[in-house]
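Q: Sequence in, structure out?
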Amino acid sequence: MSEPTGSAGDCRDRAAVMAIDLPGRAQVADDHSGEHVGTGGEARRLAGAHVLLTGATGFLGQATLEKLLSDYPDTRVSVLIRRKGSTPAAQRLDSMLRKPVFNTWRERVGDGEAARIAAERVDVVEGDLGGNPPSLPDDLDVVIHCASTVSFDPPIDEAFRTNVSGVVNLYQAIAATGTSPHVVHISTAYVAGARKGVVPEASLDHTVDWQTELASALAARDEVERDSRRPEALRKALAEAREEHGKAGPQSAALAAEEARKEWVSKRLIDYGRLRAQSLGWPDVYTFTKALGERAAEQLWAGAGHRLTVVRPAIVESALKYPFPGWIDGFKMADPIILAYGRGVLQEFPGLPDGVLDVIPVDLVVNATLAAATAPTQPGEAQYFHVGSGHSNPLPIREMYRTIREYFEAHPMPDGGRGEIKVPLWTFPGSQAVERLLRTGERATGFAESALLKMPASPRTRDWMTKVHRKQRELEFLRKYSDLYGVYTEAEVIYTDDRLLALHESLPADERERHGFDPRVIDWTYYLEDVHYPAITAAMRAIGSRPRSRTVAKRETLPERTDAVAVFDLEGTVIASNMIEAYLWARLAGRPKSGWVGELADLATSMPKYLRAERRDRGDFVRTFLRRYEGADEQALRRIVADRLGDTLLARALPEAVRQIRRHKAAGHRTLLITGAIDILVEPLNGLFDDIVASRLHVVDGRFTGYLDGPPLVGEARAAFLRRYARLNGFDLGKSYAYGDSFSDRPLLEAVGNPNAVNPDPKLYRHAKRKKWTVREWGKHTRGPVEALMDGSRDSLLAGSWGQAAVLPTGTSTTALPGAPVRSLPAGGSEVTR
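A: Exactly. Output:
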């Protein structure tokens, strides 16, 4: 491995005397209206300089810009920011300057002065290094390149496009200006790859051709996309989608198949990146592409006679002191693991207790970066700095575990109003033992989920599924971080920092406190327990303090509006019954109990046929089951409903559903019932809804033929009907509500902005939890089916069954709630008549 240009001593000597050469430019202005803390040596070295900062919206970029604004008052800054959707780069900068990282500076100078300083000193260059290189200013003195993807496991083409193509595009854009600024290239200490021992601050020792790897990586997506469209791949995806989503409808299955194809492409490209990196000695595609980005920088910039500094931070975490202790923007590498441990999720983790976790606060990285910017090499040379703690102030994993455990035992995480979470005890069993634990858990939860999906819907089933899904999430988390970070927690490598410490010692003694970057100043117990852990747990504590509730508050308030519709499914959502139960109510109501046995036996014999139809498609089941009405007298059925079944139906109505329907009406929402049940059977519910859409049986000479007048409104047909209904009546579906209990209701629920899964079957429950939909448990005080059936048949007024014309005695009234007649679905259409 080749040594860097010059020794550590040379670096110290040069850094002490060398500043950016800015002939003809003013040095330090006398008055800046309290803009900065002081104008010491560090600030003077960049006085009058024009700095280009890439990656300014990222974690390190924000901290660097804040430091330049607060402590380098005579430095101009151009920030390279890409447009995000419809938001231009300048607007993104304005929003960023209001983030917490700038609070201390804004409070010191005042909001008005902060706005003036930003307008005067900061220019925006809109562009994306992953695309066409933007035009850069032609008077740059320093370029600090922070932009990169920080995901450890992105698809290979995305990683290369940002970390390699972006580097190439940047250096081409700089070269196009005709200037020769000093470039500070931010990399990572982990570019050294998967290795053991000591790694020097020097150019990487490898022979990988970055241009060949870049071309191959960018071509990978086309290759994988072609493979994903081959018949055998599509056949497999479509078969699995139909099995899983077929009940929701053919379009739902097709969409699921396409999503599965895209997911396969993404996973395949992630595999491409991970395996290619590992085959060449890097743990993942992130470190692999960062290493190739370094090599491209060496060849394109230092190799072309320019000055290049490569800064390699280790694991960058929250600020030690500046802009304030604990400042962090989002969760960084170690934080999800810390939080998972505090929540009791991470029962064990691979890692060597004597291994070193190389953590460094972000403010030390910023200080080192700016110090390096003021100490350039000679033209045509590159220098390297490791910015970490592993060499000078190592943090063993066992020591970090001690601090985590101490912190959470002293400050346990709240458990949603159910007390506090007890943290687990780690024994560091090693990666192989953790892998066995993972595989066993994954097999067990997979088997449990498969079994539960075949069980009927019930509160107990949903409770079991909740526990299984919680365990699956824990295992997925452990799998993800074990695969991604296991190599870092089991690393036996030390990144030397002799050159970094020499650069630090070159600072004037009175500037080291504010501008220094000596990792030996870190007291790990103080930093972790008093600064870092409180910072990253604050948001989680606020969430965890909220009481857990499996049900929605009883007295929820619905927003008043007249452009919203609340659409309800019937069976299992509004009433605690199904099509078979309703049939039995009607069929047995006019028969003596001695005649029930034959009807029940015939129904039981036909159940396998109905179950097969239900598994195929909800519409098939409706068509198949409604054939049992063949030959029934229409008027007789109406009288049965008027005589007894109205009371029975209302007795089986879910009280919570009735209250919710009335809440929607009180809020001005249109209420709509969509059901596959026949219109006659739901007439007692007229008064609850503004509109009811139901199936209508075909009638010839006053008797049912057993066929429908039109296709049943199930699955995707309900969603299509709802969209047309909303369009014709001026309803905003994004503000509307839907309630359903079956996976076949999924398209209806997805059509609105407020989906509600009511007593959902296992498949819908799983989908609702994944989508974070509202899940409701209704019907705890509803009369049972046997009791309702017995009441409905007791003291029947009917002399016969629906097969003969039964006469309703004079003066008997129906039990339907007052309201308009049921709007049934006409043959061949989906109309609601008014």
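Residues 110 and 727 are 51 Å apart (CA to CA).
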